[in-house]
Amino acid sequence: MARKTAHDDPLAPVTLAVGQEDLLLDRAVQQVVAAARAADADTDVRDLTPDQLQPGTLAELTSPSLFSERKVVVVRNAQDLSADTIKDVKAYLGSPAEEITLVLLHAGAAKGKGLLDAARKAGAREVACAKMTKPADRLAFVRGEFRAIGRSATPEACQALVDAIGSDLRELASACSQLTADVEGTIDPAVVARYYTGRAEASSFTVADRAVEGRAAEALEALRWSLATGVAPVMITSALAQGVRAIGKLASAPRGARPGDLARDLGMPPWKIDRVRQQMRGWSADGVATALRAVAAADAGVKGGGDDPAYALEKAIVAIARAARSQR
User: Fold this and answer.
1) What is its EC class (predicted)?
2) Eight-class DSSP state of 163
3) pLDDT tens-digit profile of 220-256?
4) Domain annotation covers residue 261
């Protein structure tokens, strides 16, 4: 979820939204606009791209109004502003106008860093809108969505939704809204499965889970569904590699270690430790080595080393499923 600084007044003179997650950037803008219109229903909102904000434009937009109207000026992709316009913005930061809220959306990378630093130095309210690359962050996002709506969802249901939908925050947010609108009571895994079973079966991680559990037929079925619905083969080999490596890591971890310590040392969330523990039954050290070789061969196959990526993946899945039963 977007993280905000301690200075969290949406009507602060300047709000700086930093990151590349479009949903969070849009929500940062919406929050400011909603607060401004709550204070003044006639608030004028100007939403501008870099090509629309030429030198002198900001001065015109922020000049005193005869009627002292409230105004919100949104500048998207601020890192792409011209050098002259950046000078205008920096000058404005030193003396912002009353009744005007400036919202700067910045990607947060090196480009345009001078403007980013200037806004921070001027004391701008900052909202972090970085891409959520970690599954744990997306899981926290889903929990936060249900909490914000005022509905209860079990941890297993939240995890099932992330597994089914993937990394697109807009789709995750939409799914949370749909479930809360359509379903009464606590949202559990059965509800998620009823609405999103097709998506869940198409998940590359579902393919990997079934393979490392030794369930070859189910893994192959999930693979075919995944490929039919447009999941990239390289994403499936990545998920297979992560699944096998997780088993190897946990198998080599000290016996008797606490889940929290394992999660920290192995870089896995606690829920994944429990899942991998269940999956690793039947695995041997030789089995892990065999499975990793199969994944490497599949990876080469889907990246141009073979004529049929689907066949390369099927072959790897069968090999991994067999390796999962090496101690059974």
Assistant:
1) transferase
2) H
3) 988 888 887 677 788 899 889 989 998 988 888 777 6
4) yes
Note whether 313 and 302 are within 8 A (CB): yes
Instruction: Compute the distance between CA of residue 281 and CA of residue 326 in angstroms, rounded to an integer.
Output: 10
DSSP designation for 136:
H
Percent of the chain at pLDDT above 90?
A: 54
Domain boundary among the residues 107, 128, 149 is at 128
| Interval 51-92: pLDDT, tens | 999 999 999 998 876 566 789 999 999 999 999 999 999 999
CATH number, residue 105: 3.40.50.300
Q: What is the pTM of this model?
A: 0.61
Q: What is the reported pLDDT for 197?
A: 65
Amino acid at the residue 93:
L
In this predicted model, what pLDDT tens digit does every residue of 130-189 receive, in sequence order? 988 888 899 999 999 999 999 999 999 998 888 877 778 888 999 899 899 988 999 998
- Quick check: is 286 in a domain? yes
Is residue 113 included in any domain, yes or no?
yes
Angle between helices 189-201 and 216-228 (to 10 degrees): 70
Q: Say how far apart CA 324 and CA 328 lie, in whole Å.
A: 8
Helix, coil or strand: residue 275: helix
Query: What is d(CA 81, CA 55) in angstroms, rounded to the nearest whole number?
Result: 10
Strands 44-48 and 71-75: parallel
- The domain in which residue 239 lies consists of 205-323
Specify the CATH number for the domain of residue 179.
Answer: 1.10.8.60
- Domain's final residue, options 128, 145, 174: 128
